Amino acid sequence: MEWFSHSILKRARAAKKLDLRAWNMRDWGFGRHNTVDDTPYGGGAGMLLKVDVVVPAINAVAKKSRVKPRIILLTPQGRRLTQALVEELAQEPRLLLVAGHYEGFDERIRSYVDDEISLGDFVLTGGEIAAVALTDAVARLVPGVLDESSPTEESHSLQDEAGNRLLEYPHYTRPEEYDGHRVPDVLLSGHHAEIKKWRHAQAKPAQE
User: Fold this and answer.
1) What is the pLDDT of residues 66-88, one digit of tens each?
2) Which of 20, 60, 119, 205 is deepest in the core (most CB within 10 A)?
3) Which residues, other chains included, contact 30 with Cβ-Cβ below 8 Å and sequence gap of 6+?
4) Residue 140 appears among annotated catalytic residues
5) 13, 70, 94, 140: which is the annotated catalytic residue?
6) Domain count for the chain
C-alpha cells in the first residue's frame, strides 16, 4: 500500500473518499511456509498459484465487503485497459483485484472471477504493478479525489464530434521563450474562443 500513501491518493484516503485495502495470499497458504504455489502438471518452467489458495482468499475477502465486489484477475490474457474501461470500472461500488506472481495461475481460477484485465502486450514480474496502475487510474475518477474539471480535460477523456477519444493538447508555462522555443502566440492572445479552437485542433486521436 506504499504507493497509495503519497500525494493525491493519500489525501483522498484521509478524507475517506477512497477505501483501499490489501491482503496477502499467504494468509490462506498451506503448511509451515504458507505455500501458495506449486509446479505445473505436465512439466514446464515456473510455479503456478494454487486454485485451493486463491479461491478461498477471493471468497474470504469478498465476504468482508458490504456490497458484492466485481472480481478482476490481472492477467496477460485479459481485456486491454483503456480509459473507457477505467470509466466503466469507476462506476462499480467495489472492486476486488487478484494480482498474481510467479509463472501464472492455475487455469481453474478463471472460473471464479468476473473479468480479466491486462495493461498491454508485455510481461511483468508480477500482477502487483498492474493492480497499482488500474487502482490509480480508477481512483482518479472517484468523485472528490480530483478537482471536478480535471478528469474531463485530459488525454483519453477529451472527445471529438464523432466520439473518438483524443490525447490532450500541448501545454506551456513561463517563460514565453526558452532557447529559441516560443509559446504559441494564440495562447498569449487572451482570446478564449481562439484558444479553445487551437487546443481542439492540436488534440490528437488516441490509439485505444
Assistant:
1) 999 999 999 989 999 999 999 99
2) 119
3) 36, 50, 53
4) yes
5) 140
6) 2
